[in-house]
Design brief:
Layout lengths: L2 E8 L3 H8 L9 H16 L4 E6 L14 E4 L3 E2 L14 E2 L2 H13 L5 E3 L6 H4 L2 H4 L9 E7 L9 H16 L6 E7 L16 H13 L1 H5 L3 H8 L7 H10 L3 E10 L4 E9 L2
Parallel strand pairs: 1-8, 2-7, 2-8, 3-6
Antiparallel strand pairs: 1-10, 3-7, 4-5, 9-10
Amino acid sequence: MAIIIGGIGTSHVPTIGVAYDKGKQQDPAWAPLFKGYEPVAAWLAAHRADVLVFFYNDHCTTFFFDLYPTFALGVGATFPVADEGAGLRPLPPLRGDVEFQAHIAESLVNDEFDLTIFQEKPIDHGCAAPLPLLWPHVPDWPGSIVPIAINVLQYPLPTGRRCYRLGQAVRRAIESYPVDLRVVVVGTGGLSHQIHGERTGFNNTEWDLKFLELLENDPEQLMNMTHADYVRLGGAESVEQIMWLSMRGALGDRIRKLHQNYYLATTTAMTVVLYETQT
């Protein structure tokens, strides 16, 4: 049977991908960020993760405001990495496991989540920015991806509680798949940042660290928060944090935090945290 062995929360700042592609891993401004991912990559390799389920958001690359789904799941053997204006990245296409993805889609619909299904669409930095920091990619990725896009751009957005329940439904889907797979769930986005308007450049480290503590120990408090609460505390774009609740919902009640790295050097608090599920 498929099992969830752990979860990762990670920022998906597009400049992470740019810095990675330009070989800035040892640059003094970037080294604290890249070093923070090394324990997570080592854990994934040691535990031989077969699949990464990504809860991420599309930044108007595959979807646009004239047709922007609340929840969308990719089903396909491959997904190209999007060119977001800086040219094609030197990464192989993301691999998919169609039978596993289709099983998750059917299970979620039967669990009363009405999904949009997409195929062969490009995946942008919401997933692709942190991915090469987690998995090696030469000559190819070591496993497959299940991309689950969540609307955090066009109101009305799903609530934090709805995202948590999506994660719970994804867990039920994974655990009902009759093939031995080792699955890790990944929530991306955030933490505090705002990239437009009067509060451009806003960050709130105190709130970021409180969010991480609540995510681990009391996610119910985070589910009770409104979108306005997230925006007030962390800036307009920090509403992306509701995607971390999907990851947390998929993990179940018993988890252990193995690693956390928080680095604030730009307009976004760049963070990675690793949880291991406990039996």
